[in-house]
């Protein structure tokens, strides 16, 4: 049974698959799309749903993949090369598509990215408080007992209170995690670092006695201070998730410039293509490809 677009969006969200939700906001005739038409664009460039014909969809695909890469939403204005336009909208990204058959369009592109993963090691009161508070801030909590490793996590917090902290820290560092916090005293933290013997680059990622100084005294307050430090690292310092396990991500498809109309197109299996004299050319639609082929033959 074919899923509705809403069901497909729910499925992708549950599976933590990144995608872009595209919604037609405005469309002028003779555009084939109408306000409210929707589609999703996946990281491999595939489009599910409808936001216009071949040329408009190509512009949406290319802009959506850029939005997926940046994580920022964008209002895409697609204009034919006829002077047709909507009134100016601050913050819009404008694409003039010479091959569009008429009808200016505006499409809102909203990247939908998986929630950041917080990997917890230990079953201490602080770890339990973190597991309770973190989802309210949009984190997905993983426990070391339930998943094979911390790859793909934005941060790891080790709260074993005397357990094998060094091994847990080493696994997180080797997985590329950018913030590895340890719930411990400053004295214990110094001893952990001596035993760990991290490189200078690794030392910058390890945070003994983790958390902002808010005078925390109990487990929920300590958890709050730790989450505040992680949020600050994400929002202020640009902390990103560690690389996902091999094979879990899809590389963004490459782009090319249509030699006829100058449009930037995303190279897909169905992108109009021509191989000539040892060079590959890609086009926004078959018309541009045929025109280019004719110019080579003349």
Automatic annotation (TrEMBL):
Note the Gene3D superfamilies from the entry.
NAD(P)-binding Rossmann-like Domain
Q: Which InterPro entries match?
A: MoCofactor_Util/Proc, TRASH_dom, XdhC_CoxI, XdhC_Rossmann_dom
Q: Which regions span the lipid bilayer? A: none
Start and end residues of each TRASH domain: 258-296
Can you tell which superkingdom this protein's organism belongs to?
A: Bacteria
> Which Pfam family, just one, is annotated for this protein?
XdhC_CoxI
PANTHER family to which the protein is assigned, alphabetical: ALDEHYDE OXIDOREDUCTASE MOLYBDENUM COFACTOR ASSEMBLY PROTEIN (PTHR30388), MOLYBDENUM COFACTOR INSERTION CHAPERONE PAOD (PTHR30388:SF4)
Q: What name appears for this protein in its UniProt entry? A: YHS domain-containing protein
Source organism per UniProt: Nocardioides iriomotensis
